[in-house]
Design goal:
The chain is of the alpha/beta class and 236 residues long. The protein contains nine helices and eleven strands. It has helices at residues 40-51, 61-64, 75-79, 97-101, 116-125, 149-158, 181-190, 205-214, 223-226; strands at 5-12, 15-18, 28-29, 55-60, 83-87, 105-109, 131-138, 141-142, 163-168, 195-199, 218-221.
């Protein structure tokens, strides 16, 4: 089974923090078995070594909360060939310019997106393969939308998106399990051709495998890597 693990970095105040349950006011600097550093570049390097991955998901929590994004540290990773997905609180299409300038793919979260017309503008302005629509949920309720997951997917597809993330914020860093396995299965049955990532609450390799088996193409992971619940990949 393909177990595509995508390491996650939650950055706030120029440091990597441990995200827990989407309650950003409580986030503390990361305490990791992989590195003693909280510097984003050093944590990124440690995660990439541990997973032997060549892609990262980055949440700029300051930008998501309305502040200026801090993305300068991403360029060296991109220049060496790492694929970097960035959620920096995009509200309108123009907000994606700093992300694209840094070489990252743009994650557009329903939590901050002003409307699907802005998503359509973004897809038209940039390479659609570098645009992800994140369906941000808290306790299975989609943030920023009155519709359910399927309805948001349909609107995203109509706007030109073809890559999606299913993110359960309430389970992030809690060790409660992903809680989105059934939703991944439903999405895959209804939308067989989309690319789908899932994240939030992943505890171990079994959770990763369950999400992949349910139809996710990849799984976003942070705490389980830092805590050693998912062991580091053997060296090549």
């Amino acid at each position: 089974m393909n177990s595509r693990i995508i390491p996650v970095i939650d950055a706030m105040g120029g440091r990597v923090v441990r995200a827990v349950g989407g309650r950003r006011e409580l986030y503390e600097p990361i305490d990791s078995m992989l590195t003693a550093s909280t510097e984003p570049v050093e944590v990124a390097e440690a995660l990439l070594r541990a997973t032997r991955a060549n892609e990262l998901y980055i949440a700029d929590l300051d930008a998501i909360q309305g502040h200026r994004p801090y993305l300068q540290w991403i360029r060296p990773l991109v220049d060496r060939g790492c694929k970097v997905m960035v959620d920096a609180g995009v509200k309108v299409a123009a907000d994606a310019i700093p992300i694209a300038a840094a070489g990252g793919s743009v994650v557009v979260g329903t939590e901050t997106l002003r409307g699907f017309d802005e998503l359509a503008k973004l897809v038209q302005a940039w390479d659609p393969d570098r645009v992800w629509l994140s369906i941000d949920m808290r306790n299975e309720v989609v943030l920023g939308s009155d519709g359910g997951v399927v309805g948001v997917l349909e609107q995203g597809l109509a706007a030109g998106a073809k890559r999606f993330i299913l993110l359960e914020l309430a389970r992030v860093g809690t060790g409660l399990g992903p809680g989105t396995v059934d939703q991944c299965r439903t999405i895959r049955q209804s939308f067989p051709s989309i690319e789908l990532l899932a994240g939030g609450g992943v505890r171990n390799q079994q959770d990763v495998d369950d999400l992949i088996a349910a139809g996710a193409n990849g799984v976003l992971v942070a705490s389980a890597l830092h805590d050693g619940a998912i062991p580091s990949a053997p060296s090549a």
